[in-house]
Amino acid sequence: MTDAARPAHSAVRTGLALVLFAVLAISVNDMVVKLLSGGYPLHQLVFLRSVVGLCFALVFLRLEGGFPLLRTRRPLLHALRALAIVVANMTYFAAVSVLPLGLATGLFFVAPLFITLLSVPVLGATVGPRRLFAVLLGLLGVAVMVSADVALPTGTSPVVFALPVAAAFCYAVMQVLTSKLGAESRASAMSIYIHVTFLFVSAAMFLVAGDGRFAEGVADESLVFLLRAWTWPAAEDAWLFLVIGGLAGVIGYALSQAYRLGPPAVLAPFEYVALPMAMFWGWQVFGEVPGPRVWIGSALIVGAGVYVFLREGGGDRPAARVGTRR
Questions:
Q1: Which of 83, 54, 31, 45 has the alpha carbon at shortest distance from 210?
Q2: The whole model's pTM is what?
Q3: Phi, psi values for residue 98, rounded to 5°
Q4: Is 132 exposed, middle or buried (CB count within 10 Å of its CB: 0-12, 13-18, 19+)?
Q5: 212 dihedral zone (left: phi>0; alpha: psi -120 to 50; beta)
Q6: Within 13 A of 113's CA, how many CA atoms are on the CB side?
Q7: Taking each helix axis from N to C terminus, what angle separates 42-64 and 235-261, rounded to the nearest 10 degrees?
Q8: Could you tell me the residue ranges of all domains in the chain?
Q9: Is 100 helix (H, G, I), strand (E, B) or coil?
Q10: CA-based end-to-end distance of the chain
Q11: Which pLDDT tens digit goes with each residue over 104-115?
């Protein structure tokens, strides 16, 4: 390895470590959100989580250089990136409230395959026919998982199965834009843009639906989670709000920094570590045992993502450097 290649390789390894840390934090965050979903509306969880997360992000911003880092020459792209992750969170957590945690996470993990596809128009990456076949294989895994015999709460629409896939696409948009914008924006600044957008969107939802009037007579539990009235957190739940707020702060920074340092096509498949974690939390906390179709579909999705990574040569081949800082 040349002297010039060593810093790039080291950056990719740092990005990988940050992705793995973020994945662990995300798995705990998802489990806690599912725990709280029966008593609080999603926009309240998002608002309170982002208040705490923003405090963490401001600390990171201070360490990296302060408020001047918030200036950007591409405000529209940053706004699109922030809105993408807001939609991703809203759709995913709406699904988590009614679907088994392992199933929702498995469906969400078509995201690395979407990242591979989006890297072509956004980052100028080259994706050959074999990687395109891997994407199709992952989508087949989605079809297998959706066909699983899962008991949904009464009144819940089957459309809920599409929510994690929609979340995956929006998440992929966010990460590809992170790679594109990372050369000129610090991770702390990008994290703050996201938290501020979460605050604006959730505050707007509170003004429109915070009294719960739109949830009256609604049978679909995922919609009720989105629309129920705000409730003052119970004393025994207060620490859980602090947990998801703190996790939001470190997750936002870790993922932003990771995708600044490493190419999305290399880092994204390592997010699959969240799948066994989600199944573990689902089993231990909620008594959810995945059926055979969930296992088969997950294997197809994970296998497709790992194949994409192997085709990239583990980060050493030139094609894998798409999206690195220039």
A1: 45
A2: 0.81
A3: -125, -25
A4: middle
A5: left
A6: 29
A7: 50
A8: 6-321
A9: coil
A10: 19
A11: 988 898 887 788
